[in-house]
Amino acid sequence: MNRYIKPGKGDGFFNVAVQFLTRMGVSLAGSRVLLVRGRKTGEIRSTPVNLLTIDGQRYLVAPRGQTQWVRNLRAAGEGQLRVGRRTVTFRPVELADEDKPVILRTYLKRWKWEVGRFFEGVDHTSPDSVLRDVAPGFPVFRITETA
Prior knowledge:
This is Deazaflavin-dependent oxidoreductase (Nitroreductase family). The protein is α+β, with helices and mostly antiparallel strands. The chain is built from 4 helices and 6 strands.
């Protein structure tokens, strides 16, 4: 599924503010700055993301769908997460759709206030069957730090 929601007018300001605060070392509800090499330009691109931890595993969810950062991360095969001066390099593993419901549920429970509008009526109380139905539109990556 090629679901993609373009950022709205207010989203640019919000993203810049979150990125600035995160770079200063202030993580807003788990925010990080994702750094990933662009698949066409080779330049490092940055965007704010929410880092989700479940049972010691860490995940990135793309609430807007097939975004540029998702495409770049797939192509690069690695990225970095930054908060303040701390930068962690990682490798992503994209989850299969059938593995996403518990991740999406937990993500929505924590950040619905921020990203709920992108899920079009689906929330953390939705049945697993609904979460499975929408899963193809929401890329999810398990991340593992590299040395």
